[in-house]
Amino acid sequence: MKKIVVVGEILVEIMADSEGQGFREPIALTGPFPSGAPAIFADQAARLGQPCAIVSAVGNDDFGRVNIDRLERDGVDVSAIRIDQDRPTGSAFVRYRSDGSRDFVFNIRHSACGYLEMTDSTQRVLETADHFHVMGSSLSSPEFIALNVETAEAVKGRGGTVSFDPNLRKEILDTPGMRKAMVRILQLTDLFLPSDEELTLLTEASDHGAAIQELFGLGIKAIVHKNGVKGAHYYDAAQSLFRPAFVVEEVDPTGAGDCFGATFTSLWLRGTNIEEALELAVAAGAKAVTKRGPMEGAFDLQTLQAFKLEQREAP
Amino acid sequence: MKKIVVVGEILVEIMADSEGQGFREPIALTGPFPSGAPAIFADQAARLGQPCAIVSAVGNDDFGRVNIDRLERDGVDVSAIRIDQDRPTGSAFVRYRSDGSRDFVFNIRHSACGYLEMTDSTQRVLETADHFHVMGSSLSSPEFIALNVETAEAVKGRGGTVSFDPNLRKEILDTPGMRKAMVRILQLTDLFLPSDEELTLLTEASDHGAAIQELFGLGIKAIVHKNGVKGAHYYDAAQSLFRPAFVVEEVDPTGAGDCFGATFTSLWLRGTNIEEALELAVAAGAKAVTKRGPMEGAFDLQTLQAFKLEQREAP
Fold it and tell me: Could you give the ipTM of this predicted complex?
């Protein structure tokens, strides 16, 4: 089995219990939930039995422990999670508005995971990567951009593969050097996993068909275009496939794209046939939204397979 | 009316709804409550009509706004609260254990209020101080220690006064330079406001009577020893007084010492007779514990006076 490594943020998420705007008065909240897009990706991959590690840092506090405990329990290699003695674990407060948009209060950049310190454990984990997953949300500083680019180059250099989920917050793309870094990552990418309008965000072409050809021209071998409730498209040089989403009751969409991506990537690395991989990824995305909390909706392969069969047999 | 200035942390507090240990699984929480010992002190002083300013910083986020809104509404001069565009507002997660002790997860040192940047507004506010209050919890870095010592010296130099609440977390006293800074602050202090064992924490003497003489020897003019439910003692060269606590139902003790201190300090600055000032300070402490949230228990003078009368008349 090929080992996936991802570099990026580990956070706790604190969720408002009620819909509404922002955090300007005391309201009912629930947390801490383990979170951070790359951590959710790693957790979902590990739940499928894929060897997986995350390079990150948490504070020496309960919010760090809640994350390490969860990741370790689910089988993630946590040896490259540094425990920072000075900075706190990152956090994100999230409140949904009635229209589905979200208000946040973040503590990420100046939290433990916002600072990179190469340790022997980090080095060792990076060297064991067969596959490197780049999460766009983690390209948060020149140091992290450099580490992602260098690691992607090293993994490719030794015959490994790279996947890339742009997972963009708009404010991140506008930071200096970010667009250039994104394009460099694209050039190293084998498997590209954009959501919605991210498909054309980094291409010259604004038309989907032309954008896909442009991405293939950069060396990308496969594209999975995640469109949430509108289903998912798969494209490579030989074929294109579409799978509609499963209909579920949405409790909390956070983390669904990461569970989808980790499932597709893990199965793609094992050589599962593409149709099956796509359908199980769609199943992982659907299951993820049924649970409150960003990492709570990661399930094992058996559960995803059973869910898929159940859904396909439903009247 | 004399203007009080305080330098130090502004935080939000997020409170666990249930008693228990720590934050290692998702639990029900309530927040954000405006908080930070010096901010509570400033808010209580302002509610009594005392001119008061705080020198601090918050992030450009809802947690900053919830604090500035509250302080401004209650009459605190907020012109020296810097809005940091990069760092988040500080936070403290608090959970009570069944024995009354507390577990915390802090984000303070690397939050907006952990960094000092002198601005024209800060300078202006510091120069208008008739009275400077030093909060021990705010002596969190060499820069903040230096600013507190310099400001205390400047205020004393122009004929103003200084109060000092050691408000110690044990880990803070052990940081390099801290004990020396505490002693220097003591030498500049007119009104000393220790709680419980803090009375003898900085003195050679371990006996209360000897400690009080030692503190007078440093130049301190008045000592108010806060002992929570055990009442409060006042000492100066001419007299000593004791006031028992009022009996109330304790909902949340956080902030009670700050409300007590702000009330006594404000009334002392106005020349209110000591017995009345001490009794109203005890009333402020009692009222503070009846409200959930660290700053929620700050009341105006009329309310404290009415409460005091009511309590003294109770059978």
Answer: 0.93
